[in-house]
Amino acid sequence: MNGLIVFLAIFVGLPLFELYWLIEVGQEIGALPTILLTVVTAVVGGALVRYQGFSTLMRVQHALERGEVPALEMVEGFILLLCGLLLLLPGFFTDILGFLALIPPLRRLAIIAFARARGVMGPIPDPAQRPPQDQQQKTLEGEYWREDDDDRPGG
């Protein structure tokens, strides 16, 4: 039920909200300037997304060359994809969200806050609080076979 509410809010409520603000701004500054402003934000936003996307791609390649996992950069790439979508949609609210997500420090802060809230990222445990070596899990290697198998070793 909650998924349906979110779906309706995004796909019905957001366009209605954007349409309302487009009409309000159009009444204040005129229809043609409103349309022109919407097109300019889409073009400028698209150029910024493209530039930052290439920058993120370069950081991904450098992390891979160093043998690191580029997890943060991959999430940034996904967010940049969403920014591009938001900036291409006509409307001022989606443009504001898209431009805010194009600010790298804000974007990284949002990623880190989301990861911490989901429990994906947390503080590094203090080595003094780790269990002693003999209480840690150990991996044992060996062979096993079922009694009803005829291909067991030595049999």
Total number of helices: 5
Please tell me the overall pLDDT. 85
First-last Cα distance: 60 Å
What proportion of the residues form beta strands (DSSP E)?
Answer: under 5%
Give, in order, the helices and strands.
Answer: HHHHH
Structural class: mainly alpha
Say how many strands there are: 0
Radius of gyration: 26 Å
Which of globular, elongated, flat, extended, rod-shaped describes the shape? elongated
Helix content range of the residues, please? 55-70%
Low-confidence stretches: none
Main β sheet profile: none
What is the element layout, followed by pairings?
Layout (H helix, E strand, L loop, with lengths): L1 H28 L1 H35 L5 H18 L3 H10 L2 H14 L38
Helix pairs in contact: 1-2, 2-3, 2-4, 3-4
Description:
By secondary structure, the protein is mainly α. It has a domain of 85 residues. It has 5 helices and no strands. The protein is elongated and about 85 Å long. It starts with a helix and ends in a 38-residue tail after the last helix. The model has no long low-confidence stretch (mean pLDDT 85).
Task: List descriptors.
155 residues; 68% helix; mainly alpha; single chain
Describe the structure concisely for a colleague:
It is built from 5 helices and no strands. By secondary structure, the chain is mainly α. Helix 1 (2-29) packs across helix 2, helix 2 runs antiparallel to helix 3 (71-88) and helix 3 (71-88) runs antiparallel to helix 4 (92-101).
